[in-house]
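Annex B, item 7. Sequence and structure tokens for protein A, then protein B.
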Amino acid sequence: MKSAAAIVSAMIAAVVALASPPASAVSPFATLPQACSGGAVPALGGGCVCGSGYATYHTGGGILCVPQIDSTCTGGTMVGGQCQCPVGDQAYRSGSGNVQCIPPPAVVTCSGGAVVANQCVCPAGDTRYAASGTAYRCIAPAVAACTGGSIVGNQCVCPAGEMRYASGSGGYRCIAPAAGKCSGGTIAAGGHCSCPKGDTRYTSGGGQVVCLPQ
């Protein structure tokens, strides 16, 4: 006859055998997360993805996304272990939990020019001046002279019927329209208008050249 201890041991072994399914019945997906709390599973499948600023914790039944505890908060305010940045600022987090709040780049204004990649770009020949902060203005060079016309708003304005010709020194002269592309000069090789020695070379906006004695 078996002893009482042997009978109890046999009963325990039978219960364990019934509670443990055979190895072939174990699902190959048993190790995959069964839940994604606080995160999201991509539409195309894959694991649980936690958002920016969240830490990933593996639990027995899946994955839990928990807000990271920030250690420093530069430019913001620490609230409940989280760095809160001012409205409009961007929070930059390092792997060690340090957070820095960075304001967006200031908006640049550019009077007389164009804003390109948040920079004021002036037309060729104009000078860029800073008005205040990020406000800029493009100003054309001052007119040195306007012979035969009038300077209005830093522009040489010629009388009706006359054309404005520019000299190389930044001055202008108002001259009645001349025939040809090289009045008073000689067209040299390459189509360049060459003025006599001592004459001043004036050029119109259309490329017409007039040579006049000084």
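Protein B:
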Amino acid sequence: MTTTTVVVSDRNTRRKAGPLAGCLDILSTELRAQRYASETIRIYLAAAKAFGRWLSRHQLGIDDVSESVLQRYIANLKRLQDASGRKGRLPYTGIGLRHLLRGLRQSGLLEPQREAPPSTEAERWLDGYEQHLDRVLGRASATRQKYLYFAKQFLISYCGTGPLDWSCLRATAVTEFVQREAERRRGFGRKAPATAIRVMLRYLIVEVKCLAGSKQLFQWLGSGSMLPYPAICPRRK
């Protein structure tokens, strides 16, 4: 097996990255540590250079980089059309930049992000689920974000702003959510909702142990099907 290492050493490349010129190797190291493909690393480095040029035009330096500044940059990018003709896909100049932000924080060039503790039951559940994906399953950052996205969307669909009560979760809620999310996607992306929700349900059964009828649910999970299956728990009287 041949390992390709992406090293940023060209002076012209660094000059084009503006105030982020000295940070490209940090990003490259961060991505290699997570075993990203060399082509993906090159794309993310190109996005970091574009972000650096934007910082220069707005007279901003490394110390000014933050979540809000990154959101400003992304918000001003022209969205691309997807296969369905809808505009919504980010251009290459806007992807992978959260890896840069994390690398700058880990290297000490930026202060660690001060996150407010989860305030709602749903947020606390998502926090525990993220720790499970990271520490128990060892999923890569990009995979964790994808699984968390679908878990959060499911919670919004399932309980909205109300209390989180897994005891009344039924098969129809899962099936309808997965089918609805799949219809919005094309190609291999149609499988993403089912994969993410299957991982979430396994977490609920094995780790949280909050669902009844786990035997039937395990049979459904192992089938790879998203067709309706028996209720996870009986309706409350």
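Comment on protein B: The first helix runs from residue 11 to 16.
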